[in-house]
Amino acid sequence: VTRVPVARPDAIRRHNLGLLLGQVHRDGEMTRAELTQRLRLSRSTIGALVAELTELGLLDERVPSGGVRAGRPSHVVAPRPGGPYAVAVDLDITHITTAAVGIGGHILARHVVETTGTPPGPREAAAHIIDAASVLAAQVDGAARPVGIGVSVPGTVSRRSGSVEFAPNLNWRHETFGAMLADAVPPSLPISLGNDADLAVLAEHLRGNARDCDDVIYLMARIGVGAGIIANGRPLRGYEGFAGEVGHNVVDPSGPHCHCGKRGCVETFIGEQALLTLAGRDEAATTESVAKVFADAFNGDPLAASAVRTVADALGRTIASLVNIFDPERVLLGGSLAGVLEFARDDVVRALNRDVLGGSESAPQLMPPGLGDDSSLLGAAELAFADLLLDPVGSR
Amino acid sequence: VTRVPVARPDAIRRHNLGLLLGQVHRDGEMTRAELTQRLRLSRSTIGALVAELTELGLLDERVPSGGVRAGRPSHVVAPRPGGPYAVAVDLDITHITTAAVGIGGHILARHVVETTGTPPGPREAAAHIIDAASVLAAQVDGAARPVGIGVSVPGTVSRRSGSVEFAPNLNWRHETFGAMLADAVPPSLPISLGNDADLAVLAEHLRGNARDCDDVIYLMARIGVGAGIIANGRPLRGYEGFAGEVGHNVVDPSGPHCHCGKRGCVETFIGEQALLTLAGRDEAATTESVAKVFADAFNGDPLAASAVRTVADALGRTIASLVNIFDPERVLLGGSLAGVLEFARDDVVRALNRDVLGGSESAPQLMPPGLGDDSSLLGAAELAFADLLLDPVGSR
Fold first, then answer.
1. Contacts by A131-139 with C-beta closer than 8 Å and gap 24+?
2. What is the C-alpha separation between B69 and A152, in angstroms, rounded?
């Protein structure tokens, strides 16, 4: 239909403020001239928008130093040090990482709590997060204010209710976790939740190894296994928001018993516990115990090396099934799968080419995440920044 | 960015002509008053657009008969009988169905060729289609002209080259099938190809059982098994256009041998040949041989009934894996899977609920296709109509 939206000057200005802030947030500092070109607005409009975002305490401007060129140099626009920050939380089974993340996606402060013994319940996890938010507040610039809390959860998050519906490795089910957090903080600090793999692929699409890529899968193994998917440039969410839960797909009905009650789930072949078991280690999966298997494999331990290769073969098969379904341009492998790719890329590729429809021609690029282990954490920060980027004036 | 597209009156008019034609094409005849409401244009604009589409020979108007109401009755706008038609082709392994499909999606004439013995090669299939197009032309209104040929193919179609990349059950690979067809028809008759399951879900989303549904999977078994997927209202295509090829995903490494060289592919559990083998029939899968298994099952043949139930269990498991990945609102089951659902819905649902993450709460609606066996055929017609609907003037 051809109706043109009513163009109220105030709404346009605020929309453009968000666009300009979003450019600097995603790509870092840039000149006014670059902003003028990217946003296709006039130099004077860009100048006015930058001035307003500076006034709002979000950006800073400086005249570039060094370099002698003809003409007046274009001012450089950058996130303001001491500006607002997101409280980003990566809630994992064995530890909770909390960070203050500034505009531009820079981690200003980080706080990690190990959760020993049984995984935390929702109230315990919420208490950890509230404590960590205070610790972070003390570490960042005194004037900086948090804009919100974004939490990455290893489970399904309902996009309707915002609850954690099913987090098998935390043993949570139908937990109104977002509401618990919201009850404990002032209303000025909005809470958002997302699935860990969904947030990881979001962050990688924004600033990591999926930046230029509109059909990408982020397959992640920690204790559990999940996928975050971007198809045709847009996140795949599903009807309730539960898409990407590939970890409990059965790939061998006579495979190992899974804690979910079935046998031969993907998780029992490529999850961290599978790696440890194959390496002959009767240990719980932790950052350290998993890292040790990879270190030993690189140091020539035959059992560790063979364990990684066995996981690599199963990983190749898992990727093949996802490629048959999604036909992505690229697959990012995160968590312990990044280690598997590093040590045994050939084994992964061989299994993938063997199983994928159309063979090696159909195989996508395989890469580790560009943001390392921080993809989910930085994706959680994006949740917290979303309102500010939509309307930098209104969300103050 | 806030640039408003330059609103050339001619471009707007043609855009609106396409929108109006699209409404009648999708939903059938309706009054001018309904069109005014749906398109949010003035009555006089609607009147002018309808007049132009009538002039172009695409629509007809009539004053509704019967009913006595106050005021002047609103004219009814409908597809014009004898107007242009799409040549739609459903190329299957055992038969090629060709149809003349009018605006509104009505099948005006249909022609079926059985392909006995080995599946047709691309040149043979192209010759069949060209012949069928002539047969159809003789059957429709003499003044009617074809707008293009849309072909549904049981394999992957490259969205970059338009070639059939891999159709395992036809034994085609890298076939420039679209170009072969284009060489044999006048340039005024454009050729478009699509994957059968992709086209099926497109047609169901437009007029069938997925009309009101933005997250839907159409899982189809004929000789092969494939899925057409709509996620967040948009077709899932993948980087090359190969998405949805779930038939050769391995679900049991010690399962039956598959013609693709692997063991335990989805197709070996829920494809038509699997059903016949389980029913103890040493026959090739044809429309008749498969229909007979279902008829016998309904008539109390224990082996046929048990075969359908075994397929139903595997089908439930297959759906569970797709639900874990996509979290759809609805799953349509087409081809022989519609028969499995009809005879053994309880077995499908039991296996689905057993295997899906989150159990029965997460299970989607299961339905047969609303367009019966014609989903792919009617989806192919949409390919042929696409240009006309985009610009009813320019594509003449």
1. A132/A87, A132/A89, A132/A96, A132/A98, A133/A87, A133/A98, A133/A185, A135/A98, A135/A111, A136/A87, A136/A98, A136/A99, A136/A100, A136/A109, A136/A111, A137/A100, A139/A100, A139/A108, A139/A109, A139/A111
2. 61
Cβ of A253 within 8 Å of Cβ of B250? The answer is: no
- Say if B364 is an interface residue toward chain A (CB within 8 Å): yes
* CA A21/CA A79 separation, integer angstroms: 9
The model's pLDDT over A310-363, given as tens digits with 9 standing for 90+, comes to 999 999 999 999 999 999 999 999 999 999 999 999 999 999 999 998 877 878
Element (H, E) at B235: strand B234-235
The structure tokens 């968000």 sit at A18
Burial of B325 (0-12, 13-18, 19+ CB in 10 A): buried
- Chain A residues 152-191 with CB within 8 Å of chain B: 156, 165-166, 168
Give the C-alpha separation, B275 to B344, whole Å: 13
Helix axes B9-27, B375-390, angle to 10 degrees: 160
Q: What ipTM is given for this predicted complex?
A: 0.91
**Inter-chain touch A327–B239, beta carbons under 8 Å:** yes
Cα–Cα distance measured from residue A255 to residue B11, given in angstroms and rounded to the nearest whole number:
60
Of the candidates B317, B331, B321, the residue with the CA atom closest to the CA atom of residue B364: B331
